[in-house]
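Fold these two proteins, one after the other.
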Amino acid sequence: MNDKILKTLEFHKIIAELEGFAASSLGIDRIKALLPSVSSEEVVKMQDETDEAAHVLRLKGHAPLSGIYNIQPHIRRAEIGGVLNAVELGQTASTIHTSRMMKQFIEELLENEVEIPILEEKARRIFPLTELEHKIKQAVDEGGDILDSASETLRSVRQQQRRNERRIRERLESYTRSSNAQKMLSDAIITIRNDRYVIPVKQEYRSHYGGIVHDQSASGQTLFIEPQAVVELNNELKELQMREKAEIDRILAELSNEVAEYANELLVIVETMGDMDFIFAKARYAKEKKLTRPSINNKGIIRLHEARHPLIPIDEVVANDVILGTDYTTIVITGPNTGGKTITLKTVGLCTLMGQAGLHIPAQEGSEIAVFKQVFADIGDEQSIEQSLSTFSSHMVNIVQILQQVDHESLVLFDELGSGTDPQEGSALAISILDDVYQRGARVIATTHYPELKAYGYNRPGVTNASVEFDVETLRPTYRLLIGVPGRSNAFEISKRLGLSEAVIAKAKSMIDTESNEVENMIASLEKSRREAEEQYEEAHDYLKHAEKLHRDLQQQMIEFYDHKQKLYEKAEGKAAELVEKAKEEAEQVMKELRQMRLESGAQVKEHELIEARRKLDLAVPTLHKQKDQPIAKAKKRELQPGDEVKVTTFGQSGQLLEKTGEQEWQVQIGIMKMKVKEKDLEFIKSEPKKEAKPLATIKGKDYHVSLELDLRGERYENAILKVEKYIDDALLAGYPRVSIIHGKGTGALRTGVSEYLKQHRSVKRIRLGEAGEGGSGVTVVEFK
């Protein structure tokens, strides 16, 4: 990719934005060097890197990357025997610490079975130099100062320094607090000159204190004198300071040697952390800009869903779908200069460059880009003052250079192709250029305002027209790209809206040839048809979503119904068994008493009669035949076919086979329901005669099925009760176990009327007001018997 194309498409602005998401100069250096790759394998790898980091950010929200420094120069200097200062050592320790935290961070993700092979491989390269980090941190603080804990010698020397300084201050403070201090001293303070403690003495009293003069004021009236009494103490302090410096130099040299010993490991850490910073910068940029990962191909196919220009604020930009390289390889965007065409070119170009640079793109999930060897663009005002070239000439210089290099692995973007010269010649030249580029197999998007190119899109295979929508009502472009619809000038409509008289407009229309009028009318018709198709699609989409929701609700209700029915059967049998068992116990007691009576009084009750009565009592115990345990009758076993009538053993219901949806799964129509059922749960009943299979019921639309809710808001009382009556009947026929009636809160009159009616209905088991998530007192939930 040449620099001119990157500048034309403003790729450098993307890079500048990306730099703001790096945590260190290491990441920034890599971002500045980022260029689109022309290797499919490399592009996929870079996209994988960004995707992994984006996945980590979605899970954790951050990555521990603060505290990285480019310590490569420090390491190199330490290797050749140089001594690092405290700041450089502090930066080294900070980088080691961050690398260790990052390694631990990645390992924790891997323990949670997060798949991040690229980051895992990079983390594996990091050698945790914990001992070196602790040694440096023990000696150097975050501000780059040497700590007392660096060595026992340094601690001892500094303690002596502090004691000595305290003695010097005490001695000098005795001078500043004396009775004649106000007369002899310019100011009652202690200060430092030439690293020695002094007091400001007036010129005329210099002999009173003796000692050494280290400085004087600008006027010469004040002398900064080290009194004779503290000269020896200052000498001792100076010696201690020299010892301190020597110990610090020794410590720094020792730590620098340690750094040199681990030079190779540290260089790997720097390289790896720079990569990590770069990868996570791309991911943070993608998160901030709401970018997504595109699919990559080398077939020249571009498929962008709701693509937007990344440099335009997301709340202002208009997203568009762009498809190129499938049924057509050239898009000609026609229409007046009303805005949007150039943005479309730059959007496609930038999405391609960003994708090939391993960045996610400003488009929806499922978008796809191709890897091009070259991207060419002739966009914007190319007038060259320096070369005394007109706009047309400058454009042609660019186009000539493009035609010299373009091939089947190129993406070419032409803005206002053929403009700047005679319209007839310009349009002919534009068509010839497009033909030449098309024949070389390149992918092309060109904008033009020449009407002659509208027909070009229809007459050439592999070429399609497009336009940017213009709202005549507001006299503003909507910036929506309409592929397949050529642009029209809208000059007459705009003039009319701006107040130009009908007579002038009519005369202007009469001057346009019939063919042009027909083309404009055709375009207007296409736009109208497109709008109608979009409206119908939206309406159909809403119906489909409603129908799918209804199907799911019905299926769930049906499952609940059969489960409930089976539980009721089991409960009833249990209750009956309890009663019979109790009766058997009572009967047994009666039989004992009868036998006792027969023995005692000789009653004429025969033993076989007692046994027969006992047998009849045993036969009275009910037996529950669970539907789910019924075996499939072997006599009926056969290969199932679409149209067969079958029994669904799990529900105990008959249905009709529609189609086989899996190896051992069928779609079955049970009443108005279509369900997927395992073949082992189907029992063949009979086959249908060879004719067109008709479902038991057909859902024709929203008005033909029974909804799970009835909305009465806004209805008059009498009409509402009639609707409730019909709705309850329909719901009972549909087999619903419960429904909801929405009457709103209002005055409560409608709710009261509906409640009174439902309480008297013979099929209503109970009613209740809705809960908080169901609509509260504005909804009545009805459960049927």
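Now the second one:
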Amino acid sequence: MSTVSTLGELLGQDVRNTERRRMRIALHALGAGQGKIIDLLGDPGSGKTRLLGELSSNAAYLRIPVVHHHCTEFWKGVSGFAFREALGDAFTRVVPPGGAPMTQPASADRTLRMLDDVRESLRKRSRAGMIVLLDDFHWADPLSQEIVRHLLRFPLDTPFLLVVSARPLQTPPPLRDSLRQAAALGLAERIELGPLSLAESAVMTGLSPCDERLKTLHRESEGNPLYLAYAHHELRRVEAGGDPRELSAPEEFATTLSPEFAGLDESLSRVLQAAAVLCDRFDVDMLAEVARLGRSETCAAVTALVGRDLLRPLPDCSGHTFRHVLLQRLVYGTIPTCARSFAHARALRALESRGAPASALATHIERAEAELGPAERQTLMRAAEESLENDAPQDAAHWLRVVLRSAPHDVSAPHDVSTSRRQWSRAERVLLLPLLMRTLSAGRDLSGRSDLLRAVIDLAPERDDPLRVRAVVFHALLQTALGQGSNARVVIENELAGLPSGRLPGPAVPLLLQREITALFHNSSLNQRRLHVALRIAREHGDARGEAGALSLLAYAEAVTDDAMGALHHAELSAALIDALPDDELCVFPEYIHFLSWAENLLGVFERASRHALRGAALVHTHGRGFLLSGLLVSASFAYTNSGKVPQARDTARAALAAGREGEDLPLRALARALEACNALMSGEEPAVDVENDQAVTDTLASGHPTVGALTALCLAHGARLRNDMARAESIVLTAGNGAALTTIPAILRPACYETLAAVAAAVDSPLAPRWSWRAKVSAERLHLPVPRAYASLAQAHVLRKRSTAAAELYRRAACMFSWSGMLVLQAWALLEIASCLESARRPDEARPHLELAAELARQSGGRLLSDLIRDALEPASAPAPAPVDGPRPAPAALSVLTSRELEVASIAGTGMKTRDIADELHLSPRTVEVHLGRIYRKLNIRSRAALARMMAEAGVGPALGVRVPRGA
């Protein structure tokens, strides 16, 4: 954010350089005896006066006489007054008192003689050089305008510079036409101050051109420097914690614009003040009612105000509005307090009679400063609801605060001003509580909303009311999401303590489940015994929703332990109940479907996980609990990633990052960034975030978070493997698992982690590879699920790569299990490995069907990186190209294990060419080249580019020897 703060500093930034340069050229031309007339056009606030001031300062430095006249409405009736100082003593001689009767044809000769006298006087006074600056010339009297037109027709032959500055909308048509025609004929120079460019706005405000805030400011101000300065001031004020609904304008802006409306007569002033009360749009009838004037008088006043460019017609001809909101706020600030309140009351009645929406009435209800009754509070609540529908939660929060302050106090507790001691009817509580919860769910920034969060509990009805359970659970869940778990636990425990002892009632189920959710968010394990109690109570009371919630939490709890089959059973029961529940019931506690989707992700049921996550996201978007949206989108992205829908996974991860809010769960945000980066690499793109140096990702890996940390580590390790950074992949997994035993990683994720370690160890021919493979197999056998077993088969296959036939069989087994689970990308990877093993075993005919199936799976997944690798593998087996004339030189047998593309990459890489240059040469992405190099290193049992260069040199293979295979061969 710029350090510029005052209006003068903002407007004094280095903008309007083109216009400044043209003014300086005209100024220096005076030294050569060349005069000129400049037509300086621009809307109010565009910078005309500042340009004239700079020109005057430069002329004073060059010691050129300057006459600077600022035209005003006050002197409009004095003929020729704009040229009084320029003419000096000759003014009284050439301009008779009262001016010339120009409107009478009989006086044409006398008028012409007078204009010639004025011209001759100016010619004599400007022989040594002279500058006349006429600011706000649209206010000039008719004779002064006629003098300018005469000078346009008969230019002076002296170094005389005349700058006529005016507003285009207020300039009289004859003068405007004359200036335009003179500019077309080359008799005058037209300088029009249009909107600032985005780059100029960036210079003026100090914001980056890529900053979305700057784009918003530029759009709202339409590039007008004054309005941009005001918008920038408001942005700084709001970011510093100011009220965005504040209507007063700073004094420095008032000094600039107040003269425009300070001298209005009573009727114009009353209509303008009525317009300021009505704010953004109004018609003549509404203005007449608020201003308490007749319609004809109001219509005449509106016409005059439009002529002064204070008001402007709306494009759809439905009324009028202010030239700019800054002008409206300045006028509003001039209205006395009592008169303002009465005017708002009149505006409220006028809008109510026209059936205006509640959002249009709310401002006038608040600012009428009268005691609010039930009808007014209901209108404010409707306004809050409309604000939520228009995606304006800040406005909704404001109207709800007005409602909360307006209810009368309980007379039994006159000194207690808390919400709980106010007199609320049951009907008002039923309307207000859901609105409060929706508003708190919708806002991205929850700072400063503690009063609304506290009101949720204060407004909750007695303990035997179901609405109270919803309020308490929401309050605890939101506090948990904001990292205030201790407060959430206190609220839940107090509520449970108030329930009758013995057989718990049905409303206890959401409270029991929320207690476990609160514990889970703070890295505590779920208490399965308590979850079974909640499940029993829900079934006793026929509570299908509570039963589904208890089952989903049980499934999640068992999925992160060794009871995978129990988790799968409970997840299926929960899914059946949730799928049967209508949205109107499920939206009350959407956290249940949130945990179900994550349980299904852990269990490898990715299609159901993505479906449930997206349904939950739609529910929280339309019915509240918006703070769950990011987690649900991350769940959907994870499901898409594993089911091989690369573009959808990448886009959903980005949507999750965009939906994140201040104070939300950092591990989930880290997982979203890791998912986005991994899928961006698979898409052949650059990640939006540098996850290697992202603090949230680093903290998540170091925190030992049992589930999200492990999932983040797996995504990051996969990305490192795609970049052929095997050491990084190994380090990530071991760090997240707190050592080789992976004690901090849930049992259901350990086979995938051990597969990564086995792949890394096998790639560098480490003796640890069999150990990692064995651990993957043992951990998978305990789970009895296809996905962990598929990872275990992959790990075993990596270790047996030198025994191609045995490795191919294990890769085939993994591909079948990945296919059964709908994991397209991993199935394609396994098929690619099968083909590589079969080629190594000299069975290329058997390899091709696997490659063709892998190519189709890669096409369906949308992963460009995988598609490139398979396409290259589908090329014919490498064969020596035509040899030089001195005899054939076949490729060495050691290189025969490489495919044609791998041999092509190896031959170029052996010369020392960089990865990006190789990619450009072969029309591949750098990621694809890196993957090829990793496979080459593994097949040739080498570890570095230097070793590859030595091997290629010893073998005598390189591009110069013709080994390189042309593209498409």
